[in-house]
Design a protein that fits this description.
The complex is a heterotrimer of chains A (484), B (312) and C (291).
Chain A lengths: L18 E2 L1 E3 L2 E3 L6 E6 L4 E7 L3 H20 L2 H17 L1 H12 L3 H22 L22 E2 L2 E5 L5 H14 L3 E5 L6 H12 L7 E3 L4 H9 L5 E5 L2 H10 L6 E5 L5 E4 L5 H13 L11 E5 H15 L20 H16 L3 E3 L15 E4 L6 H4 L6 E7 L2 H9 L6 E5 L3 H10 L4 E4 L18 E2 L12 E2 L1
Parallel strand pairs in A: 1-5, 7-8, 7-10, 8-9, 10-11, 12-13, 12-17, 13-16, 15-16, 17-18
Antiparallel strand pairs in A: 2-3, 4-5, 6-20, 11-19, 14-15
Helix pairs in contact in A: 1-7, 2-4, 3-4, 4-5, 9-10
Chain B lengths: L4 H4 L3 H9 L6 H11 L6 H14 E4 L7 H12 L13 E4 L4 H8 L5 E6 L9 H13 L4 E5 L2 H5 L3 H15 L3 E5 L2 H4 L2 H13 L4 E3 L11 H18 L4 E3 L7 H14 L12 E3 L2 H14 L12
Parallel strand pairs in B: 1-2, 1-8, 2-3, 3-4, 4-5, 5-6, 6-7
Helix pairs in contact in B: 3-12, 4-13, 4-14, 5-6, 7-9, 11-12, 12-13
Chain C lengths: L29 E5 L5 E6 L3 H20 L2 H17 L1 H11 L4 H21 L3 H5 L1 E2 L6 E9 L2 E5 L7 H12 L3 E5 L6 H11 L8 E4 L3 H10 L5 E3 L5 H11 L5 E3 L15 H4 L2 E9 L3
Parallel strand pairs in C: 5-6, 5-8, 6-7, 8-9
Antiparallel strand pairs in C: 1-2, 3-4, 4-10
Helix pairs in contact in C: 1-8, 2-4, 3-4, 4-6, 8-9
Classes of the chains: A alpha/beta (484), B alpha/beta (312), C alpha/beta (291).
Chain lengths: 484, 312, 291
């Protein structure tokens, strides 16, 4: 046997304060209320820090600060705004290791992922949108639809209220803040209640970059804080990434306002494997599709649709592969599966998995020792799943794969589209014409063909149907932050 | 695998149909998988274990026109006792030489347990008649080579004449007698991973005991993704036939870090059952000294210097 | 010798347009359409929620074929609609002037502008993809292409003003990109809408791509806004109260909502592409590049 000795990344590189205030107008300020919450390391349940819970008055203060900063920031030449964003991108690169460790501590994701995926993408996103700041008139949004006058530059919207989830805390921050700032908006951002630390570290980065006060404000808190932010009359733009349930509430609450809204919500993506697929790579793609980031991914390939003629062969290979996944200490550089982000999320995964068994699907996990402390769930797959089962319809947001079969391409499309969601899909085939046929029929915003869970700042991301609206990334991502 | 493999090679068309029916390999996906495994962090006790494992898997190789009996004898001494100052260092698995130097190596290694491997079949190009290739093999076997590293006819393979390649391997295997046959695919000339997978199966069906990436004379030689594809092939071949075949990446593996990446690849692809010199070899020459230097660094805590390791 | 009598005119019955057919409202209801002076013009069908449901069904059924048609084909059909509209110029002028408030010259200009608007949109069918799509230079060995795709079934509350030009200006951008729609015509001035339906029915437009309901927007629009098989809603013609109600209902399945304009729309102005982009999704396809 060849046992890998523990190879933990050192956590000494991060300096977590015992307590954090709110970042408003370039300063750390104390909240008006008394309420504070502890953020824990989900792998150990150790308390990492205490974080302020912003109330309405705090949110108001932050929005005021952003509104005050808006005239200056939006009037600044794009080239100057760009330089601030480039500066931020560089600082992120320089502090990448520290931020990766901090992300892993607060979120529970493996250091391999925060180091090799999250942080490089965060820096790349700032670099990408930095470059747009002085090129907005070339982005294709210049022409005003109603006045018939061509050629005017696109205008920013004003104050953006942004609410982000806990699965990719810093990356989602980058997806929100980089385009907003590039377009000349100012922002108030609320990180998720269980993963505030990298956003708070980002506040320090804004100071390090000498970003003008009020351009970026960060308020911590839970749902009420988010509701106060999106409902604030001084907010001109709302951007939300999270559950479809909350997205619905936000969409409803914005009815009758002139606030622009973009939503990036849930998914139940089909990962479709044809008999002529490159099977070894398909297995990797399935694993990456559902076990990347413990399956806490809105675009996760949570439904495997495999052609019946290769189902047995593929499942055998998949099970063998799951046996090599390494679950454990997220700071260990060899860990593949980290901790579930919270006790609440763990309970939800357990509940849905129990429902899968109760509804008659067959549950399988590899032999996989689970640590004593912290929140953990083994990589799990369900076979014999029917479209009607809850585990085939509801977003589990955990390392749980539902396996279904199909016989023909048309049936695959039908099953893949048979969901209220439409965020992503995967297609595995070596036949180009079939791939394109599938891609054109799948009602999903991102189609990964012979790959899965790839992201890039130049590539628009976002869903159809109940997976939300608007795109993040690429030229398309600018539209959310411009008056077009 | 439902096709009875015995019948696969009964005609050019059945052989072709079988090889072309193997699942394709997506190059980008295979590269990404190999790169990910390359990020495994092998430290402390695991590194120590890996270094000794790697030393024991080295096929210490010299395949130069300028090779002499003296050069081969020196290399054999190194093979048996890689670090004269440290008797806990295991010997390497084998030495690998040209056929005319097999006898020298056999004599030098007598009783050591280190095997003698010989390249054959008009290595490295394989451009000769079957008669010459078989005679080349027989010469090496007669001189005492326990292992034969043959090359396939890449021209025939690329021309789609799979049966010719098959028949040459079968004939060489026959000439090997009890000696083990390693089949060099020369993956750098096969160009695609689909071809690597097909050539791997072709060699295994024809009776290869080992499949080997490269001659070391063509660039690229061994790469992680190519080895990944070959490891998948031996894994699947075992499942299909019950016969286990070894894998040998050769050429371009120079550092301990590289060697450990290969061991991780084996561990997580074919599985730990392959982590033995019977089933996995590293064809290399300069790698051995780097392994020894890293080994010493781990034992002493100091960085090692090349002057303290022999150059043979 | 019989006495010479004035010929009794044959009055037109204004019905709904659903799935390419002209049914009466399943409810059997109708309402009186009058001119601005209060003169009787016609009875129009007063669509019910069930008519709205049927129209959504027809639009959904038509969606795969229409969205799957080539852009060239859709453009040809929109151009054909413009041709047919031109041919009925006199009838539309008569219907618009009958409504009152507009002279024949101005009505003629509105019809001409409607024809020109259709021609303009017809040309967009095979260009919008090039304008909105992109080839994305990702940092890796992947081919990455984004292209616009139609949202699906779109409900349209047509403007109350500008009975023909406003109507054409909200329908054309929705369908040219491959969506199908259910339109609630101007309640006060529905007659040109039904005549337009006759144009559509004879223009090679597949049945169900455009469905037109007459009646009360306040009554029908909320059913469409809340319908779980409708993907988007254009609230251009909804009054502020109705717009809020519909936007709230639309949140249930995250419909794409085009809010009513802040200012009164000048339908003669260059429309821009906003009405098309409001009901387009962006699909991004990744594929590895390797040998």
């Amino acid at each position: 046997m060849f046992e890998y000795a523990p190879a933990p990344e050192s956590r000494d590189i991060v300096d977590i304060r015992p307590s954090y205030g709110l970042f408003i107008n370039g300063e750390w300020v104390e909240p008006q209320g008394e309420e504070r919450h502890k953020t824990v390391n989900p792998a150990t349940e150790e308390v990492l820090a205490e974080v302020a819970w912003a109330g309405e008055a705090d949110v108001d203060r932050a929005v005021q600060a952003a509104a005050k900063a808006f005239p200056v920031w939006s009037a600044m030449p794009g080239a100057e705004r760009a330089k601030y964003l480039f500066r931020i991108a560089r600082i992120i690169q320089e502090r990448a290791r520290e931020l990766a460790v901090l992300e892993t501590l607060d979120n529970g994701k493996p250091i391999r992922e925060s180091r090799d995926v999250d942080l490089p993408l965060v820096a790349a996103h700032f670099f990408y949108y930095a470059g747009w700041a002085d090129k907005l008139s070339y982005a294709g949004f210049g022409r005003r639809p109603t006045d018939g006058q061509g050629g005017s530059d696109p205008r920013p919207l004003g104050v953006a209220g942004q609410v982000i989830p806990w699965n990719f805390p810093l990356l989602m921050l980058a997806w929100k803040i980089a385009p907003a700032l590039a377009c000349g908006n100012t922002v108030v951002l609320k990180p998720a209640e269980t993963t505030p630390l990298t956003a708070l570290a980002f506040a320090d980065i804004c100071r390090q970059a000498d970003l003008p006060p009020g351009v970026v404000n960060i308020v911590t808190g839970a749902g009420e804080t988010g509701a106060a932010l999106v409902g604030h009359p001084g907010v001109d733009k709302v951007a939300f990434t999270g559950s479809t349930e909350v997205g619905r509430l936000i969409a409803r609450s914005l009815a009758g306002t002139r606030k622009k809204l973009t939503l990036e919500l849930g998914g139940k993506a089909a990962n479709i494997v044809f008999e002529d697929a490159p099977l070894d790579q398909a297995v990797e793609g399935i694993v990456n599709g559902i076990f990347f980031n413990q399956g806490h991914v809105c675009c996760a390939g949570s439904r495997l649709l495999v052609q019946e003629s290769v189902a047995d062969e593929l499942l055998e290979a998949l099970k063998r592969r799951l046996g090599t996944l390494r679950l454990g200490d997220p700071l260990d550089k060899n860990t593949d599966i980290g901790a579930i982000n919270s006790a609440e999320q763990l309970a939800k995964i357990r509940e849905l998995s129990a429902a899968g068994e109760a509804e008659g699907a067959e549950r399988w996990s590899p032999a996989c020792p689970i640590p004593d402390r912290g929140y953990w769930f083994p990589p799990t797959l369900f076979t014999g799943v029917a479209q009607s089962h809850r585990i085939a319809r509801e977003e589990i947001f955990g390392p749980v794969l539902s396996v279904l079969t199909f016989r023909t391409p048309a049936e695959a499309v039908e099953k893949a589209n048979n969901t209220p969601y439409g965020l992503s899909a995967g297609v595995w085939t070596e036949k180009g014409s079939r791939m394109l046929w599938m891609a054109s029929r799948l009602r999903a915003g991102v189609v990964w063909s012979n790959t899965f869970n790839r992201f890039d700042p130049t590539s628009p991301f976002g869903g159809y149907k109940e997976s939300g609206y608007g795109r993040e990334g690429g030229r398309h991502g600018l539209e959310a932050y411009l008056a077009v | 695998m439902t096709t009875p493999l015995a019948e696969v090679a009964s005609s050019p068309s059945t052989l072709r149909a079988f090889l072309h029916g193997l699942p394709g390999v997506d190059r980008v996906g295979a590269d990404a998988r190999a790169a990910m495994l390359g990020t495994r962090s092998i430290k402390t006790t695991a590194k120590k274990q890996a270094i000794d494992m790697a030393i024991g898997m080295v096929d210490l190789t010299t395949l130069e026109g300028a090779d002499t009996p003296g050069k081969v004898r020196a290399m054999c001494a190194k093979a048996v006792r890689p670090d004269p100052t440290d008797s806990s260092v295991p010997p390497v698995a084998a030495v690998c030489v040209y056929p005319d130097l097999v006898a020298t190596a056999v004599e030098a290694l007598a009783g050591s347990g280190v095997k003698v491997a010989s390249v054959a079949t008009s290595f490295p190009s394989g451009r000769s008649s079957l008669e010459v290739k078989v005679a080349d093999t027989s010469l090496a076997v007669a001189a005492g080579a326990a292992e034969i590293d043959m090359v396939i006819d890449r021209g025939a393979f690329l021309a789609g004449d799979y049966l010719k390649v098959y028949e040459e391997i079968v004939a060489t295997k026959e000439a090997c007698g009890d000696s083990h046959l390693k089949v060099i695919l020369e993956t750098g000339e096969l160009a695609t991973y689909d071809n690597v997978r097909r050539a791997s199966w072709l060699a295994m069906i024809a009776g290869a005991d080992f499949i080997k990436t490269s001659t070391g004379k063509v660039s690229p030689a061994a790469t992680l993704p190519v080895t990944l594809v070959m490891l998948e092939a031996v894994r699947d071949f075992l499942a299909a036939t019950g016969r286990k075949v070894g894998v040998k990446p050769a050429g371009g593996i120079r550092t301990t870090k590289d060697a450990i990446k290969y061991l991780v690849l084996v561990n997580e692809t074919a599985g730990p059952d392959w982590l033995h010199a019977d089933w996995f070899r590293l064809g290399a020459s300069s790698l051995l000294n780097d392994l020894l230097m890293q080994r010493q660094k781990m034992a002493t805590g100091r960085y090692a210097g090349p002057d303290y390791f022999t150059l043979d | 010798m019989s006495e010479r009598t004035e010929r009794l005119s044959v009055r037109k019955t204004y019905k709904l347009f659903i799935g390419g057919a002209f049914p009466r409202s399943e409810s059997g209801r109708s309402y009186v359409v009058t001119s601005s002076k209060g003169d009787f013009l016609a009875n129009a069908a007063r669509a019910s929620r069930k008519d709205a449901r049927d129209a959504v069904g027809a639009a959904r059924k038509a969606f795969p074929g229409w969205s799957g048609a080539t852009a060239y084909n859709r453009g040809q059909i929109l151009y054909r609609i413009a041709e047919m509209l031109e041919g009925r110029r006199a009838q539309f002028v008569a219907e618009i002037t009958a409504m009152g408030g507009v002279g024949a010259k101005q009505a003629g200009e509105m019809v001409d502008a409607s024809v020109d608007r259709l021609v303009w949109y017809a040309g967009w069918s095979d260009k919008i993809g090039a304008v909105l799509g992109s080839s994305n230079p990702v940092a890796g060995p992947y081919f990455n292409l984004s292209s616009p795709e139609p949202t699906g079934v779109v409900a349209v509350v047509a403007p109350q003003e500008g009975p023909l030009l406003g109507l054409v200006s909200v329908i054309a951008p929705v369908i040219v990109t491959g969506n199908t729609c259910v339109v609630i015509a101007s309640e006060r001035a529905p007659l040109p809408a039904i005549t337009l339906a006759e144009v559509l029915a004879t223009s090679d437009l597949p049945g169900g791509v455009v469905n037109i309901l007459t009646g009360s927007a306040a009554e029908i629009a909320p059913w469409l806004a809340g319908h779980m098989d409708v993907n988007g809603i254009d609230l251009t013609g909804a009054d502020p109260e109705l717009a809020v109600t519909c936007e709230e209902l639309a949140a249930e399945n995250l419909k794409r909502v085009l809010r009513p304009p802040v200012d009164r729309v000048n339908w003669l102005a260059d429309p821009g592409i906003e009405r098309m982009t409001a009901f387009l999704e962006t699909k991004t396809v990744w594929h590895p590049i390797g040998i």
